[in-house]
């Protein structure tokens, strides 16, 4: 049965699609018509990807796109989005998946959702995780660390500098392709686990202060990447929290930070 990827306009979604295509199964994408250029749509279609375009708010259209789909990879949404939109999108995807008879939903949450405190984005993530945990189908939540890469929207903002961020905050930055690999692995596990809800943490192998990550991105030339959007008000608070690996962490043998930074360059750099 097919897999459908939301958020395949850029970043993690595009990397997931590329990996899934290499497995030989049927891949579908649900693209935001305002964010996906026609050239990307044609590129997907030439690769054999089935493309549907629409808003995640249009549950009826999304449910049609999910017909006969086994797994929904919901990669759209992240720390640059409004918290209410993140929660609403998860609710819409889940409702449409249930209506279409899908068997599994996989979603990329954020480290800290297990103890969100007063952070509005992490609170939205926690509520979304609770929705998925109570769903009548298999759900997988991947709580990711701060994720960077040439097509990750947060990368250019980090390299340019974000006002109000504590540079001493400690993170284990996650290279975007490692996140895509983990999501592909989650799809490969279909049918091998009991139905239910699973939440795991995914980080990079190196723990650094945020200032070290920012400096590394600048040296790599990532400040020349074009930001997809301005930083939202809650971003500084999120980045100023320590986000360290926990006991259920996966991917500790992922891409070392120095190697990931070397790959995070503008085209032609």
Structural write-up:
The chain has 10 helices and 12 strands. The chain has helices at residues 11-23, 38-46, 59-65, 83-100, 120-133, 153-160, 176-188, 210-219, 235-239, 257-263, and strands at residues 3-6, 27-31, 50-53, 71-74, 104-110, 138-144, 147-148, 170-171, 174-175, 197-202, 208-209, 249-250. The termini are far apart. The protein is an alpha/beta fold and 269 residues long. The protein is globular. α1 (11-23) links the parallel β1 and β2. The protein has one domain: 3-Layer(aba) Sandwich (Rossmann fold). An 8-stranded parallel beta sheet has the order 3-2-1-4-5-6-10-12, with helices on both faces. The chain has a two-stranded parallel sheet with strand order 7-9. The mean pLDDT is 89. Helix content is 39%, strand content 17%.
Descriptors:
about 40% helix, 12 strands, Rossmann fold, two-stranded parallel sheet
Largest sheet: 8 strands, parallel
What is the CA-CA span between the terminal residues? 40 Å
CATH level-four homologous superfamily name? NAD(P)-binding Rossmann-like Domain
Number of folding domains?
A: 1
Average predicted confidence as pLDDT: 89
Radius of gyration: 17 Å
> Which CATH class is shown?
Alpha Beta
Task: Provide a brief overview of the structure.
Helices cover 39% and strands 17% of the residues. The protein has 269 residues and is α/β, with parallel strands linked by helices. It has one domain (3-263): 3-Layer(aba) Sandwich (Rossmann fold).
């Amino acid at each position: 049965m097919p897999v459908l990827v939301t958020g395949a306009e850029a970043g993690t979604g595009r990397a997931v699609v590329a990996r899934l295509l290499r497995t030989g199964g049927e891949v579908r994408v649900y693209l935001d018509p305002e964010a996906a250029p026609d050239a990307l749509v044609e590129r997907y279609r030439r690769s054999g990807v089935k493309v549907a375009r629409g808003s995640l708010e249009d549950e009826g259209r999304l449910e049609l796109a999910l017909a006969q789909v086994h797994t929904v990879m919901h990669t759209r949404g992240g720390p640059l989005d409004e918290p209410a939109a993140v929660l609403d999108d998860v609710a819409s995807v889940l409702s449409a998946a249930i209506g279409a008879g899908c068997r599994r939903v996989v979603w990329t949450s954020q480290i800290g959702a297990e103890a969100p405190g007063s952070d509005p984005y992490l609170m939205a993530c926690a509520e979304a995780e609770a929705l998925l945990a109570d769903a009548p189908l298999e759900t997988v939540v991947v709580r990711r660390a701060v994720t960077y890469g040439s097509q990750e929207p947060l990368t250019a903002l980090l390299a340019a500098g974000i006002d109000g961020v504590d540079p001493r905050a400690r993170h284990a930055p996650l290279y975007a392709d490692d996140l895509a690999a983990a999501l592909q692995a989650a799809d490969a596990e279909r049918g091998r686990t009991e139905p239910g809800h699973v939440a795991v943490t995914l980080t990079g192998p190196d723990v650094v202060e945020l200032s070290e990550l920012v400096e590394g991105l600048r040296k790599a030339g990532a400040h020349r990447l074009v930001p997809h959007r301005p930083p939202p008000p809650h971003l500084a608070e999120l980045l100023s929290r320590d986000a360290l690996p926990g006991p259920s962490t996966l991917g500790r043998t992922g891409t070392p930070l120095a190697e990931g930074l070397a790959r995070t360059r503008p085209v032609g750099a």
